[in-house]
Amino acid sequence: MGRAFEFRKGRKMKRWSAMAKAFTRIGKDIVMAVKEGGPNPEANSRLRAVIQNAKAANMPKENVERAIKKATDKDTANYKEQLFEGYAPHGIALLIETATDNNNRTVANIRSYFNKCNGTMGTQGSVEFMFDHTCNFRIPNNNIDIEEMELEFIDFGAEEIFADEDGILIYAPFGSFGAIQKELENRGIEILSSGFERIPQVTKKLTAAEIADVEKLIEKIEEDDDVMNVYHTMDETE
């Protein structure tokens, strides 16, 4: 198995406080998708993907419809995606994805978390190069021949395809999202969920005490309403 498989396994093993914020994050994704491409999912591939993710997260249909309607209101603030970079204690690189309607607030908050937990906020580009920006799709495992699918989807950018208990996962570079989404839809393959992740190229093993120091900062950052995802270079495999 490749790095995407190990990364996914590590993310599943850790406590997933993000689940508590799933609806909030999807709500922001809906606003950004509608502002960018309109409220019609058939004509807006980004919105289509967000609705699939909402369904996978068991978000009620009425919540999704309400969020789409709200996003069409010109008075609804748009969210800007902003990336923050820095180091946690013990040399662990952090990459933080945010979606904010007030950048000054978000910058101040993120800086305060680094300061309070003995981290160092970095400049743009200081750690981003340590992560591969990837896209992923989850589809049902309907007796699909994974090796055959890998051969077929290489032409669309797929780099790694593997099965887990929830279906089949396809990983590819960030820029391949549209091509793979279109090909899956053309083949009538149901997309259960999709998204983007940043996979560390190299990870670092820490002691239990050092892990606790790093997780203290990560948990502080993840609690912020503007934060969508936090990625790090700490080794989470057992």
TrEMBL record:
Coiled coil: none annotated. GO terms for molecular function: DNA binding. The keyword DNA-binding applies. HAMAP family: Transcrip_reg_TACO1. This is Probable transcriptional regulatory protein GCM10022388_23020. Belongs to the TACO1 family. InterPro entries: Integrase-like_N, TACO1_YebC-like_2nd/3rd_dom, TACO1_YebC_N, Transcrip_reg_TACO1-like, Transcrip_reg_TACO1-like_dom3, YebC-like. Residues 4-73 form the TACO1/YebC-like N-terminal domain. NCBIfam families: PRK12378.1, YebC/PmpR family DNA-binding transcriptional regulator. It is found in: Cytoplasm. Residues 79-234 form the TACO1/YebC-like second and third domain. It holds the Pfam family Transcrip_reg. Keywords: Cytoplasm, DNA-binding, Transcription, Transcription regulation.
